[in-house]
Design brief:
Number of helices: 8
Largest sheet: none
Strand content: under 5%
Helix content: over 70%
Shape: globular
Number of strands: 0
Radius of gyration: 18 Å
Order of helices and strands: HHHHHHHH
Distance between the termini: 25 Å
């Protein structure tokens, strides 16, 4: 059994957390739409405050779902059902993004005018209930496939990576919307958003293949 050094585990947790969160923050949901509105009306500083508010709530959600996932992994008899759940979750997530990419949250764009940007981020992120199954499913997937280590304090490095991923993912999309939406018809955030379900569907197919090999190929 090869034991990974502290530096390697830490780096892997940070990088995996960052990548998953960065990609997950790209779909054009209402949080990104509000961020774009704040940027165009109030500038970068207010946008950063708004994103900090979003990240504060996401930190609580991710930590809670990591702890929940860790408890599940200790129940060996549940692992097969966890893997089945992960497959259905990825398929459901792909379907949800495919159906709702173009029409999510359009009725809440005016909320940013009623509160300070930080408070707006906290309120709207608290109402973003999709992040609970999103992070529960992803954490189960990453833990089961040993992409991350959550024992002891390693979970905090994973958490740090996810929060930076969300912050810079949303900021990148907001700035991209502002600077490139009118530059070319091919540079369209909706096109990027439509690619996300394909990623989730591909992951689901990969999980089905692994599940079959693990339990039925023999």
């Amino acid at each position: 059994m090869v034991i990974e050094p502290f530096e390697m585990i830490t780096l892997k947790n940070v990088v995996v957390g960052f990548l998953v969160s960065f990609v997950g923050s790209i779909p054009l949901g209402y949080l990104n739409i509000i961020g774009y509105e704040i940027y165009t009306k109030k500038g970068l500083n207010n946008t950063i405050q708004y994103l900090i508010g979003v990240v504060i709530i996401e930190a609580i959600v991710i930590y809670a779902t990591v702890v929940f996932a860790a408890l599940l992994t200790r129940k060996k008899q549940w692992m097969k059902w966890i893997e089945v759940f992960t497959i259905f979750f990825l398929l459901l997530l792909a379907s949800t993004f495919f159906i709702n990419n173009d029409n999510s949250g359009t009725d809440v764009k005016s909320v940013y005018t009623n509160y300070l940007p930080l408070v707006t981020g906290i309120i709207l992120s608290s109402l973003n209930f999709i992040q609970i199954p999103f992070w529960t499913g992803w954490n189960l997937y990453l833990i089961n496939n040993k992409y991350i280590t959550i024992e002891k304090f390693y979970k905090y490095f994973y958490l740090t990576g996810t929060l930076f991923g969300t912050f810079f993912g949303m900021l990148s999309l907001i700035l991209g919307l502002y600077y490139f939406s009118n530059a070319s018809a091919m540079i369209n955030p909706k096109t990027i958003s439509k690619a996300i379900p394909i990623v989730f569907f591909g992951l689901a197919v990969f999980q089905i293949f692994k599940f079959y090999r693990k339990y039925y190929s023999k």
